[in-house]
Design brief:
heterodimer; A: 351 residues; Rossmann fold; 12 helices; 19% strand; globular; B: 252 residues; alpha/beta; two-stranded antiparallel sheet; 11 helices; binds thiamine diphosphate; binds iron/sulfur cluster; binds magnesium ion
């Protein structure tokens, strides 16, 4: 497969979802992700899939829940305020162990915020987001190619763990255009779903997909089983490590900010500064082991985020027995450039 | 004299005691759904969407593939199910708090899109499960735990007539309001529920049956008195009848 396409991040996600065998898409308009529903409204029906413009994000997420219960690959996409509205359904999906992909093109908040890029939804994404004791897998692409690849992975993981998977981008990733090699996924259907999904009860008792457990001890047992599943997800943790081996300072940044920070690191390296980068690709599970090992090797840390400081908590937890992490937060309203991160990195290096 | 049963016990209805209070009519509505699915021969291709209310345990009584929807969202969940499995017969079973209050947007748009699903709407004029609070369907003057002085038009507005609203939407193929307070009404209700599923089977559009039902516990009435209230207070405000029937309309 040598075909190369020049795509916006949003379109890459939409195309990857179709390539991944997505059968149903449900969505409600919101900037900066409208390219996704617009593209799918014409392209998904062409391959026999169902596109529904829902009456709200609440409805879209519940339509996702319904399609997921049928064991088909399904997705919804939105941006921050819309993702807030989806949280009840996501919690029900986690509780009922239903697979689905939810794309969040993070914009500025709180409230209506702005329509520009932000990483303000890190806590919401990685702490479950809705009510109850649960987690969702969170994938954070930094390039358009990665947006394509991680969309394929998102469907795979959703079914492997029977759990919602969040693809967390931002307005930068959604709007920027880059060349993409559209990889062909190994799997586009999930035959093993036939063992639990709803098909109509033919020659077997009815199956019930639910999150209500009222009997004595039943919810504790259910949540213990979910906890074991979240533990097993640890094997999926991924991060990009860049020039960390001889680094004195490791910058930790994710998504498009991680990618911009990489340019800064490259520039400072050229000027002789011993600085490296870890870019978490999975935010849950968080790549704790990689950071802990670097801490044990004596590195210092600076976390850079497009918010007031959220992921820095996870970095601190990862390195806490050895050291701490400094923090630099770029605020919403304008696009950071590699130059913006130079001074904070040099300051953390002690210059 | 030999007894001839009017109807046989539908196999899909699980033979066990229910958790419903004495005189509660959720059980009758369950049975009518079971009979309709059995009569139409679609039990094995049916997917139920249960809602949040006293009927949340629907799956304990109907041996069907079932998914539990969040409060009010059953029509959206049913939309997802039907789009994923167009060959399935899909229905939601919802109370009046669930459907006519928190879930108003989902029911209206599901009907308006003409989703090929059936909605069984059990209107007992209160939030049964949470202890008898006021619902959008609570009648004027009716006392509940959150309108202890009786529902008041100026303060709380008038009770919502869902069947009339649903009938006015473009995607609705069939819409009726029934009661199960007398044998005659039960037979009519059975026919309406069967019609609703038949229309889905024929791909005609969205179908909706509102079932007027008792909640003796929260009405603070005996089962008999509660049943009488259906005729004396509910039916006068919520008239029975068919409000939309696309087959009848086509013939005109
Ligand atoms: C989001 C949310 N809000 C509130 C509740 C609490 N709750 C459970 S059942 C119910 C009302 C059910 O009333 P109705 O739909 O009329 O059903 P009934 O019990 O009368 O059959 C409410 C408010 C909930 N489960 N979820
Ligand atoms: S509270 Fe009302 S609706 Fe609920 S089971 Fe009892 S009688 Fe039925
Ligand atoms: Mg009720």
């Amino acid at each position: 497969m040598s075909e190369r396409l020049f795509l916006k991040g949003n379109e890459a996600i939409a195309r990857a979802a179709i390539a991944a065998g997505m059968r149903c898409y449900f969505g409600y308009p919101i900037t900066p992700q409208n390219d996704i529903p617009e593209f799918l409204s014409t392209e998904l029906p062409k391959v026999g899939g169902e596109f529904v413009q829902a009456e709200s994000e609440i409805a879209a997420a519940n339509m996702l829940l319904g399609a997921a219960a049928c064991g088909v690959r399904a997705m919804t996409s939105s941006s921050s305020p819309g993702i807030s509205l989806m949280q009840e359904a996501i919690s029900y999906m986690a509780g009922s162990e239903l697979p689905g992909v939810i794309v969040n093109m993070n914009r500025g908040g709180p409230g209506l915020g702005d329509i520009g890029p932000s990483q303000g939804d890190y806590f919401q994404s990685t702490r479950g987001g809705g009510h109850g004791d649960y987690r969702t897998l969170v994938l954070a692409p930094g390039t358009v190619q990665e947006a394509y690849d991680l969309t394929l992975l998102a469907f795979e993981l959703a079914f492997r763990y029977r759990n919602p998977v969040l693809l967390l981008g931002d307005a930068i990733l959604g709007q920027m255009k880059e060349p993409v090699t559209p990889r062909v996924p190994q799997q586009t259907t999930d035959p093993e779903a036939e063992t639990w999904c709803l098909t109509g009860a033919v020659q077997r008792p009815g199956r019930v997909l639910k999150s209500l457990f009222l009997d004595d001890g039943a919810l504790a047992e259910h949540n213990t089983r979910l906890a074991a599943k979240y533990q097993a997800m640890e094997t999926e943790s991924r991060a990009e490590s860049f020039l960390v081996d001889d680094a004195q300072l490791v910058v930790v940044a994710y998504g498009s900010i991680g990618r911009i920070a990489k340019s800064t690191v490259r520039k400072l390296r050229a000027a002789g500064h011993r600085v490296g980068l870890v870019r978490p690709i999975t935010l849950f599970p968080f790549p704790t082991a990689i950071l802990r090992d670097l801490a044990l090797a004596g590195k210092r840390f600076l976390t850079i985020e497009h918010n007031l400081g959220q992921m820095v908590d996870d970095v601190r937890l990862a390195v806490r027995t050895v050291t701490d992490s400094a923090f630099y937060g770029h605020l919403p309203g304008n696009l950071p450039t590699p130059n913006d991160f130079e001074a904070p990195i040099l300051a953390a290096l002690g210059h | 004299m030999q007894e001839i049963p009017v109807t046989r016990y539908p196999e899909v209805l699980i033979d066990r005691p229910t958790h419903y209070c004495p005189g509660c009519q959720h059980g009758i509505a369950h049975r009518l759904v079971a009979e309709a699915l059995t009569d139409l021969g679609v039990v094995e291709r049916t997917i139920a969407v249960s809602s949040i209310g006293c009927s949340v345990f629907l799956y304990n009584y109907l041996n069907l593939d079932t998914v539990e929807a969040p409060h009010g969202r059953a029509p959206a969940v049913a939309t997802g199910v039907k789009r994923a499995r167009p060959e399935a017969i899909v229905f939601t079973y919802q109370g009046d708090g669930d459907l006519a209050s928190i879930g108003m947007a989902e029911i209206i748009h599901c009907a308006n899109r003409g989703e090929r699903v059936t909605v069984i709407f059990v209107n007992n004029t209160v939030y049964g499960m949470t202890g008898g609070q006021m619902a959008p369907t609570t009648l004027l003057g009716q006392k509940t735990t959150t309108c202890p002085g009786g529902r008041c038009l100026e303060r709380e507005g008038a009770p919502i007539r869902m069947a009339e609203i649903i009938a006015s939407l473009g995607g609705t193929a069939y819409c009726a309001r029934v009661a199960v307070n007398t044998v005659k009404n039960v037979m009519r209700a059975k026919k309406a529920i069967r019609n609703a599923f038949q229309y889905q089977l024929d791909g005609k559009g969205f179908s909706f049956v509102e079932v007027l039902a008792t909640c003796p516990t929260n009405w603070r009435l005996s089962p008999t008195a509660a049943n009488e209230r259906v005729a004396t207070e509910m039916i006068p405000y919520f008239p029975l009848g068919t409000f939309q029937d696309c087959a009848a309309t086509e013939e005109v």
